[in-house]
Design a protein that fits this description.
Elements: E1 2-5, H1 9-14, H2 16-33, E2 38-40, H3 50-54, H4 58-72, E3 77-80, H5 83-96, H6 103-111, E4 113-115, H7 116-123, E5 132-139, H8 143-149, H9 154-159, E6 163-167, H10 183-186, H11 188-204, E7 209-212, H12 215-227, E8 233-236, H13 237-246
């Protein structure tokens, strides 16, 4: 089964290692589930158009959306490490391409597009990867993952099976971190205050790491942590799971 790897521009440009981590975990999960999957990366892929769309550049967003649909139309399944980008495709492409030449292609693509942890748990049917990661972590549930994509407990189901890992839930784990793309630029003071609240809630748990499915949230929180010299680390769930397999 040909499965396309959607690597969002944010991951590609700033955290490429997370893309490789996702592939490693997917290959391990496919092996455990005895699924005959061939994970493929299309080097022609670029952006889903979310940044342009949120900034009000509808024509530019539609142009990128057309390319996205064409880049991934030939795969049987598509998986990516960002519920934010996948939520963009699932929620906003429908209206963008309604009754257009790409109407049917978009509807078909939307049904076969999955966020990484959802894919591992609900498509491959794997929760235990056999990994070890000795640490105490707390989880940030990103707004986009919860409200745009509809992610539920898939990340926790995977993390609970990692040996040596202790999950300490923070207060307000479902509250926004303050990033919101251009929101953090247009409303810097509010954005920073939201990051401060999120980091303080994480610190109260005594965790060593904040884990999330969203690299953009983690980048925002990491910037606040580093600037204020706080003893706390951030890690994408794909990176944590990949490291656990190594140990």
């Amino acid at each position: 089964m040909a499965t396309g790897l959607f690597i969002p521009c944010f991951i590609d440009q700033l955290y490429p290692g997370t893309g490789f981590s996702m592939l490693k975990v997917l290959e391990k999960a496919a092996e455990l589930s005895r699924s005959r999957m061939n994970f493929e990366y299309n080097p022609e892929q670029t952006c889903c158009g979310q940044v342009a769309f949120n900034a009000g550049f509808q024509d530019e967003a539609k142009h990128l959306g057309e390319k996205f649909i064409k880049d991934f139309s030939n795969y049987e399944l598509v998986v990516g490490p960002s519920a934010s980008c996948i939520g963009m495709v699932k929620n906003y492409y429908t209206e963008m391409f309604y009754n257009s030449a790409l109407h049917n292609e978009n509807n078909y693509l939307s049904r076969k597009l999955f966020e990484f942890t959802d894919f591992v748990v609900n498509v491959l049917g794997v929760e235990e990867l056999g990994g070890t990661f000795e640490a105490k972590v707390t989880i940030h549930d990103a707004c986009s993952a919860l409200r745009e994509y509809g992610l539920e407990d898939q990340p926790r189901r995977l993390l609970r099976k990692v040996k040596g890992l202790h999950i300490a839930e923070m207060n307000g784990n479902e509250e926004c971190c303050g990033f919101g793309g251009t929101f953090s630029i247009k409303h810097e003071a509010i954005s920073t205050a939201m990051a401060q609240l999120k980091v303080n809630n994480a610190l109260e748990t005594g965790a060593e790491y904040i884990v999330s499915t969203e690299a953009s949230c983690l980048m925002h929180l990491e910037a606040y942590i580093n600037k204020n010299k706080i003893k706390l680390k951030t890690i994408h769930i794909a990176d944590l799971l990949a490291k656990s397999i190594n140990e």
